[in-house]
């Protein structure tokens, strides 16, 4: 049967009208589904980028605030930025966020230096250097300098902001820097991996803020000094960026000299620090008296330990001198054949006292006097300096506008346990760690590169004698006028002493200004 032309036209128009009604009724549903799909995709994108879920969602957006530094030479307006830098894996996914705080002078002149600073551990955040040394605020520990229960934040007249812009960085696993997962974190916990991640973060900051033409310096404390050398090499090799100089503060340079208690050379390099601590306890410290101890350490003491055990009058003279210099009872020195690296903590401070390797002049009551070996928490590292963590979190929230929902990890011991040293994990492997070759290479291939190493006299953990040995054994053509050692009263964190912090800031300023005029 065939439809007439009119019947077909009527039927066709009715079908079109019905379809239009269906489309009109379904359009809101389709639009809602489209919006839902877009929203889901956006939520997924935000989750991946740290804005909608996972650990990254607890890290707030960058915050930039305006401030004025009251420098002795006059007011210096600056901006402070507390924020993060993103690191990505080969798959294009975000693998970590690195927290940093930048202090940048406004209206700065051309050539103003830019200093990147980090602490050590491994596993320490930058709050130590931040609130202890270089930042515009300083944390005070009461009248005695060791009361962490009521710390007070105040302006820091010795802030390095007076002569350099500052970027303080927390490596992954410290502060508010986090990896995407626990498995991903392991990829950052190692000498090489850590150096590469920090060199990437530095390169990203320089590019993002257009600071390629600024002289770039690295400041590292303790393991951070070792780290600075590794980062400088990584910057050069993987980022095409050359460091102008490094300041190492109480650094580990050679692992073989770190608490190697049965090695004659290590013992000889540590002895002057123990002698400095004893002089401090007696209120008799002078550079001249310490110089006498230094000569004995590298002379008769080293020879006596390296050769056959002395006997008779020679033994009596040697061990008596060690006892006199350190305050360790002579019978203990005799029993250890002069190797006092394992006994000084329990023996130097007097009966019922224990001293800290971070400052052998600092003694507190021994929590375990009945034990022959050290069991105490360290009275400095695990005592009053722990206050840096909570103080920085409060400062970031109240003054920098960075209010994170995560706690600030000042010292992450898990990072330290998982650290990979030269292809293996564990504290014993650090004895193989070395930054001397990196220092030599940097001095050789960057003609304007300079190095300053700073120590506290009574630091028995990373003694100044070890760094002096490293510098003294650099080729003269590399070291002359370009590598220097500075030593100050105090221990590993000598900057907690106002007089030492002031002297150090003046010496560092001269270091920068000398560099700028080369």
TrEMBL record:
Gene3D superfamilies the UniProt entry points to: alpha/beta hydrolase
Residue stretches of biased makeup (Basic and acidic residues): 36-46
SUPFAM superfamilies on file: alpha/beta-Hydrolases
Any one Pfam family match given in the protein's UniProt record, by short name: Peptidase_S10
Alphabetic keyword roster: Carboxypeptidase, Glycoprotein, Hydrolase, Plasmid, Protease, Signal
Region (Disordered): 33-55
GO MF terms held by the record: serine-type carboxypeptidase activity
Keyword Transcription regulation: no
GO biological process: one example: proteolysis
Domain of life: Bacteria
Signal peptide coordinates: 1-31
InterPro entries the record matches: AB_hydrolase_fold, Peptidase_S10
PANTHER family: RETINOID-INDUCIBLE SERINE CARBOXYPEPTIDASE, SERINE PROTEASE FAMILY S10 SERINE CARBOXYPEPTIDASE
Name of the protein this chain belongs to: Peptidase S10 serine carboxypeptidase
């Amino acid at each position: 049967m065939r439809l007439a032309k009119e019947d077909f036209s009527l039927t066709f128009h009715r079908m079109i009208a019905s379809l239009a009604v269906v489309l009109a009724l379904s359009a809101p549903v389709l639009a809602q589904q489209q919006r839902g799909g877009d929203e889901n995709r956006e939520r997924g994108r935000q989750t991946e980028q740290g804005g909608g879920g996972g650990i990254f969602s607890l890290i707030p957006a960058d915050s930039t605030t305006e401030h004025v530094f009251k420098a002795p030479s006059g007011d210096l307006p600056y901006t402070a930025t507390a924020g993060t830098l993103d690191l990505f894996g080969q798959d294009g996914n975000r693998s970590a966020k690195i927290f940093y705080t930048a202090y940048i002078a406004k209206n700065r002149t051309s050539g103003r230096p830019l200093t990147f600073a980090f602490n050590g551990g491994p596993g320490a955040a930058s709050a130590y250097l931040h609130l202890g040394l270089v930042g515009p605020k300083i944390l005070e520990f009461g009248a005695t300098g060791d009361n962490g229960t009521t710390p007070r934040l105040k302006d820091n007249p010795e802030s390095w902001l007076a002569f350099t812009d500052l970027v303080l960085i927390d490596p992954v696993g410290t502060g508010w820097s986090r990896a995407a997962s626990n498995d991903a974190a392991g990829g950052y916990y190692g000498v090489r991996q850590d150096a590469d991640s920090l060199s990437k973060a530095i390169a990203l900051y320089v590019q993002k803020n257009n600071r390629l033409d600024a002289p770039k310096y690295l400041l590292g404390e303790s393991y951070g000094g070792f780290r600075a050398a590794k980062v400088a090499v990584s910057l050069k090799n993987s980022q095409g960026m050359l460091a102008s100089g490094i300041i190492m503060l109480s650094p580990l340079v050679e692992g073989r000299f770190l608490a190697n208690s049965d090695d004659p050379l290590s013992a000889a390099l540590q002895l002057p620090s123990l002698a400095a601590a004893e002089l401090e306890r007696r209120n008799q410290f002078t550079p001249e008296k310490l110089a006498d101890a230094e000569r004995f350490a590298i002379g008769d003491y080293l020879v006596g330990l390296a050769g056959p055990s002395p006997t008779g009058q020679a033994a009596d003279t040697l061990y008596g001198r060690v006892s006199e210099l350190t305050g360790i009872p002579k019978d203990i020195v005799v029993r250890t054949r002069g190797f006092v690296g394992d006994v000084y903590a329990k023996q130097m401070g007097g009966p019922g006292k224990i001293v800290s390797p971070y400052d052998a002049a600092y003694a507190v009551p021994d929590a375990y006097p009945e034990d022959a070996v050290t069991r105490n928490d360290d009275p400095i590292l695990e005592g009053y300096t722990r206050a840096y963590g909570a103080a920085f979190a409060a400062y970031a929230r109240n003054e920098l506008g960075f209010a994170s929902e995560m706690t600030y990890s000042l010292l992450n011991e898990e990072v330290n346990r998982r650290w990979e040293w030269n292809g293996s994990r564990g504290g014993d492997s650090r004895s193989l760690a070395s930054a001397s070759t990196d220092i030599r290479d940097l001095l050789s291939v960057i003609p304007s590169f300079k190095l300053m190493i700073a120590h506290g006299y009574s630091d028995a953990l990373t003694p100044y004698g070890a760094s002096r040995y490293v510098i003294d054994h650099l080729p003269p053509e590399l070291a002359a006028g370009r590598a220097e050692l500075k030593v100050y009263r105090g221990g590993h964190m000598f900057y907690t002493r106002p007089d030492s912090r002031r002297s150090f800031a003046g010496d560092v300023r001269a270091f920068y200004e000398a560099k700028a005029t080369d």
